[in-house]
Write a structure and sequence with these properties.
Elements lengths: L1 H5 E2 L12 H12 L10 E6 L2 H10 L10 E7 L12 H19 L3 E5 L4 H7 L7 E9 L7 E2 L7 H4 L6
Helix pairs in contact: 2-4, 3-5
This protein binds flavin mononucleotide.
Flavin mononucleotide binds next to strand 4.
Length: 169
Amino acid sequence: MLPQIQHRNNASAIQDKDVPKEVLDRLLRAGRLSPSIKNRQPWRFIAINDIQKKLELQEACYGDRRCKKGALIAACYATSDYEMPNGFSANLFDLGLASGQIMLQAEKEGLAAESLTSFSQSQAGRILTLPHGMYIAAIILLGYPAEKEKRDMSSKCLPSQRTINYNSW
Ligand SMILES: Cc1cc2nc3c(=O)[nH]c(=O)nc-3n(C[C@H](O)[C@H](O)[C@H](O)COP(=O)(O)O)c2cc1C
């Protein structure tokens, strides 16, 4: 796993190329298999591969031109929230975990993936006909990378001395 986590495809430029449905199906499965608190599985995923919908979502994503190119997965949460024993809300945490699993599987499939949170919640919800009370945690942008070379993420991450300790702060 670690080599694939460390060396990631660059999603800043993606090819104008459809993502096959069987690949999308595997990404959705990776999301569904994610752990969640009390196994609540608060997620609902919407895969978007229709060009008209992608163009509409591009507008909701403030004109991000990558939206119309590959495919998108909207990671939505379905139920009322649950307060975890640590005092924080479960839904966004679980949706983040599931999105991470989708992104890892995407990497394995040769795709570049990026979570987008810069979008109009109301506009995107309308486009995807979300029922009242449901929200989109993130829109995962997926596409075949324009450049073949993977990036070494270790050059971008904070030094371990700053972010990791053993046994105490
Ligand atoms: C929760 C989350 C939300 C993000 N939202 C956006 C976004 O709205 N638009 C965007 O271009 N990138 C977004 N990103 C991508 C981050 O900016 C990116 O992962 C970070 O800068 C590291 O860069 P890299 O993954 O390209 O190396 C988001 C990432 C995460 C984890």
